[in-house]
Structures are given as C-alpha cells and as structure tokens.
Amino acid sequence: MAKKYVARCIVMRNGARVDDLKNFKILEDVYREEVDLMTGSGSVDRARKYKFSLDYAPPKNGAILDWSNVEDETFIVELEGGRRLVYSGVDSLSVGELTLDGQQEAVMTVTFIAAGKDEG
C-alpha cells in the first residue's frame, strides 16, 4: 500500500543540508491582524510573514549549529513526493530550551520568520 501522507523532509539552509533534525513545523501565515475600533473590532492587512520551526538534535560530537545568526537566508524544504517549500528572507526569532530526555538525545526548538514562501 502506498503512503498517503508526507512523513519525511529534507531541509536546506542556503544550499547546505541540515542534518540532525527531529521535526519541521509549518506555523503561522500572518497576513492580517486584529485592531480595536470604537464600534468593536476589525482587521487590517499587513505585510505577509511566514513562521516555521524545527526541532534540532545537536550531535554528541562535533559542532552545534548556531541558529541565532540566521538573517535574510533561504531555506528549502523538500517533502516526500516531490513537493518543495522555498522560504526566502528567513530570520531566526528564537532558540528554545534544550530538552534532555536522559536516555536518547537532546532537542532544541528553533523558530523562524520568512518574508516569502513559494510552494511547488
């Protein structure tokens, strides 16, 4: 039986493959925000921003990637089945806590915002 859902992806940061990933999450697509009005509330259009995050498992030996210096970069996410997501103008927003499970590995969540997103 063929798979119906995407189970894996490859993430490229400025053309270099990022290994040691546990999860990739597509978060918000922010294009409008709520504003208070005298008669209640409304919304206003804003510059579109795309948020995503990844869970990074630093290697036991070797260099740990510095995610705090991500500015105006390009990330390409290749999904199973040939789909690609290209995020441009990517900046890191936050590097989350390093979680140690005591048995397998350490994992940290890194959140990003992008100025552009192209799906193909």
Describe the protein's architecture and organization.
This protein is an all-beta fold and 120 residues long. The protein has a single domain (9-119), classed as Elongation Factor Tu (Ef-tu), domain 3 (Beta Barrel). The protein is built from no helices and eight strands. Strands 1, 2, 3, 4, 5, 6, 7 and 8 form an eight-stranded antiparallel sheet that branches.
Strand content: over 45%
CATH topology: Elongation Factor Tu (Ef-tu), domain 3
Q: What is the CATH C-level name?
A: Mainly Beta
User: In total, how many domains does the architecture comprise?
Assistant: 1
Q: Show unreliable segments.
A: none
